[in-house]
Give the backbone structure.
Amino acid sequence: MLRDLTTFHLGGPAELYLEVKNKKDIIYAHNLAKKINLFVLGGGSDILVSDKGIKGIVIKIIDKTLKIKGNILVGRAGVVWDYLVEKSIQKGLSGIECLSGIPGTLGAAPIQNIGAYGQELADTFESLIAFDRKNNEFIKMNKKDCRFAYRDSIFKKEAGRYIIFEVTLKLKKDNTPKIKYDSLSFYLNENGINNPSLWDVRNAVLAIRKAKLEDWNIIGNAGSFFKNPEISKNDFQKLKKIIGEVPAYPTGNKVKIPAAFLIEKAGWKGKSFKTAAVSDKHALILINLGGKAKANDIKNLAEKIVLDVKQKYKIKLVPEVQLIGF
Ligand code: EPU
C-alpha cells in the first residue's frame, strides 16, 4: 500500500511496485510500462495519493550511492536528502545547510526545486542524469534544461517524461554561511550566535522546523500544501485594501505573499473537515487526523480553502503537493 510509503500516510495500492537499483532496471520498468502509466516515487513527502491508489507501475530508486570529491557532490536518486545535507556539512561545504530537515530523496529534490530559509536546490545544482521516456535514452541535463522556478521545474511541467537517476551539486568550501531569511537570523540572534557555523545553521533550521512544522512521523502531512502566491504590485495594493497589512517579499516585479497568512486570516487555521484538518501550528499544512484520513477529505478540504481564499481575497492558491490517482 502506498500509504506505507508516503508522509501523509495515505494512498491505496499500486498495480505493480518495483524497487529499481540501476540503469538496466529503469529501462526494464520503462519497457514494461510502455502502454501504462509509470510513476516514480521518491520519499513520498510531497504527494497526496488517492485511496484508489495508482493505476500502473510505481517505481522507487533505491540506489543510495553518494560520492563527494572536493566541493562536488554526486548522488544517486535514492540518497536520503537530509543525509546528504549532513555529509556536506561534515566536509565543510556550504550551500544546502538551510535545506536541513527536508524529508524526501535527492532524486525528488529537483522536481519541485526544494527550498527553505533562503536557499533552494537550483542555487547549487550542477546537472543530473535522467532517463528520457520520450526518446528512450539516458541524458545529462544542466540547470537551464531543468527550467527551475519557485517550487517548479520541467519535471513538473512534463510530469512522467523523465526518471531522475543521479544528481550533481556544486557546493562551496566555506564555513561562514550567509543568512538571508528573517526568522532564521532572528533565531540565531536570540540564541546569541553571531557568527554561525554550518552546524549552527543546520541546528537552528532543525529547531525552527521542529517548532513550526508538523512531524510526519507523528501526524501525516506533506509540508506546505500550497505554494506562496506571487502577485503583481497592483494586485498587492488591492489585497492590502481588503486585508490590511500583509507580510510580503518582493520577487522581481512581483510580490510573494505567505499563503499561510491568507489561510489563517480566512479562519482556517486549526479547522477540520471530516478526517482532514489544517494544522494549528502552521496554516499551510494539512494533516491526516488521527491517522485515519481519507485522501478525498484532504483534497476536499484543500478545495474549500482555495475557494474561500479566492472569494475573500481574489487570490488563487495553487497546491505545491502533487495529487496522484484522483
Ligand atoms: N504565517 C501565518 N500563519 C501561520 C504560519 C505562517 O500567518 O500559521 C505567516 C507569517 O507571517 C510568517 C509567514 O507566514 O512570517 C511565513 O511563514 P514561514 O516562515 O513558516 O514560511 P512559509 O512561507 O509558510 C515557506 C516554504 C516552506 C519553508 C519555509 C521556510 C513554501 C510553500 N513553503 O513556508 O517549505 O520551510 O518557507 O523557508 O514556499 C515545504 O515546501 O513543504 C515547506 C515546508
